Amino acid sequence: MSEAATQTYTRADEAFDCLQTAIVKGDLAPGEKIGEVELCSRFNLTRGPLREALGRLESRGLLVRRPHAGVKVVSVSAEELLELYRIRETMEGLAARQAAERMTDEEIADLQATLDSHEKMIEEAQGQAYYQAEGDYDFHHRIATGSRNTKLAQMLLGDLYYMVRMYRYRLSTSSGRPHMALGEHRRIAEAIAQRDGELAEFLMKRHINAARKNIEKRIQNGTAGV
């Protein structure tokens, strides 16, 4: 690959990371219509890398393109969001059970170290947010891959994963929720370390159920933003 091609890829990759983070954190809100000129100006991007990034975001289901309506950030209804969490509760519960049975000791140690870094991040945010970058830095991503269940991981880490990340961050900003979620993550990790698959599944399902109830409460209060 030529140096120019490498630089073009790097700029496109940076544009993609920038916009994906903006979507996850809500700087580009669900349902918001976006234009190339505005995005270039707002995020200091150039047109070529931006277009490639938009295509990748569309393939991940984070952007939708409608005839005569342009490009918008994906959005779901309140009921659809709650259904996503019901699906997660069952699927991620199974992933946690199998992770307890199949993750290596080294992977479990890395998982617990990741939670230590999450605690520092929450403290830096003064307990007001719990942002997890995608991939290995994401607790739920590690559990899915650690399950060694290829089909289950594909379902959890496909479009469902990117859609849910949008709402996980935005809905974790309620008072006290970041520290509470971290504590729940630690208990799940401890169950996995103890190779207690039944407990790990129970704790993961309870964790996601608590998140869903938090969403329901915010919907009732009109603060969910969906």
What key phrases describe this protein's structure?
3-stranded antiparallel sheet; 226 residues; mainly alpha
Concise overview:
This protein has 226 residues and is mainly alpha-helical.
Description:
With 226 residues, the protein is mainly alpha-helical. The chain has helices spanning 3-25, 36-43, 47-59, 78-102, 105-124, 139-146, 150-156, 159-170, 177-193, 197-221; strands at residues 33-34, 63-66, 70-73. The chain is globular, with a radius of gyration of 18 Å.
Strand content: under 5%
pLDDT < 50 stretches = 1-8
CA-CA gap between termini: 44 Å
Strand order of the largest sheet: 1-3-2
Number of strands: 3
Gyration radius over CA: 18 Å
| Percent of residues in helices | 55-70%
Largest beta-sheet characterization: 3 strands, antiparallel
Can you count the helices?
Answer: 10
Secondary-structure element order, N to C: HEHHEEHHHHHHH
Shape: globular
Structural class category: mainly alpha
Average pLDDT confidence is 87
Write the layout of secondary structure elements.
Layout: H1 3-25, E1 33-34, H2 36-43, H3 47-59, E2 63-66, E3 70-73, H4 78-102, H5 105-124, H6 139-146, H7 150-156, H8 159-170, H9 177-193, H10 197-221
